[in-house]
Amino acid sequence: MTKLSSLVLVVSGPSGVGKSTALAELAELAEVEVVVSVTTRSRRQDETDAVDYHFVDEETFREMVSRDGFLEWVTYDGHLYGTPQRAVEEVLERGKVAVLEIERQGALAVKRTFPQTVAVLLEPPSRGDLEARLRSRGASGEFLDRRLALAERDDPMQGDLYDEIVTSAETSETVEALVRIIETRYQPPAPD
Ligand code: 5GP
Predict the structure, then answer these.
(1) What is the distance between the terminal CA atoms of the chain, rounded to a whole angstrom?
(2) Is there an atom of ligand 1 within 6 Å of 29 CB?
(3) For residue 25, how far is its CA from the centre of ligand 1 (angstroms)?
(4) Extended beta strands in the chain, E state
């Protein structure tokens, strides 16, 4: 019988809040595996295929949808993003914590499928801080405006979807907060 009882940790937050940096550090923990999403958006210069995302074209993405390959998928800012179902199951079968970096609609869908999901919202200390972080990774003009608008639009809609809210100022503090959440909620599988 497959063990699917271990923890799913969903981490959401606006672009630029520092999710990827924090999760790269969190992934160093032996009991944690970050699941790599699939997307049709183009790769940024600082990103690596199969590490940050599996970058695919729309046809490939749609094929995966028709094969039921996604646990959930959404359209966000004109691009498709999806969580590969099998990758999540494999992490859970290994008895580890599956970490997903996804937006709120996806978080809701994952919570429905896996009731053991803990959803965490990372919030920037301020809008100014978020804008500075987005600019520092090269965002400007219309793209910057759109991402800031999306962050604001999403904010009041969080409702009670999230189990924990973490203000993300320093990466080390964010990682510590996530580790504490895992320690409180995760029970490693008993040896066979
Ligand atoms: P970005 O383009 O900045 O990497 O990501 C845009 C948004 O899509 C972020 O909020 C990110 O968390 C979300 N996202 C990334 N992968 C997935 C996914 O597989 N599913 C869902 N629902 N959202 C995702």
Answers:
(1) 12
(2) no
(3) 18
(4) 8-12, 32-34, 38-39, 54-55, 70-76, 79-84, 97-101, 117-123, 164-167
Q: pLDDT tens per residue, the chain (192 residues)?
A: 344 568 999 999 988 888 999 999 999 999 999 999 999 999 999 899 999 999 999 999 999 999 999 999 999 999 999 999 999 999 999 999 999 999 999 999 999 999 999 999 999 988 888 899 889 888 889 999 998 888 877 665 566 899 999 998 899 999 999 999 999 998 888 777
* Ligand 1 touching residue 74 (CB < 6 A): yes
Pocket test for ligand 1, best of 79, 80, 100, 103 (most atoms within 8 A of CB): 103
- CA 83 to centroid of ligand 1, rounded, Å: 9
**Pairwise CA distance, residues 173 & 54, whole Å:** 28
186 lines ligand 1 (CB under 6 A): no
Ligand 1 geometric centre to CA of 192 (Å): 36
| Residue 101 CA to ligand 1 centre (angstroms) | 7
At residue 31, the pLDDT reads: 94
C-alpha radius of gyration, the chain, whole number: 16
From the number of C-beta atoms within 10 Å of its C-beta (0-12, 13-18, 19+), residue 116 rates as middle
Q: Provide the whole-model pTM.
A: 0.90
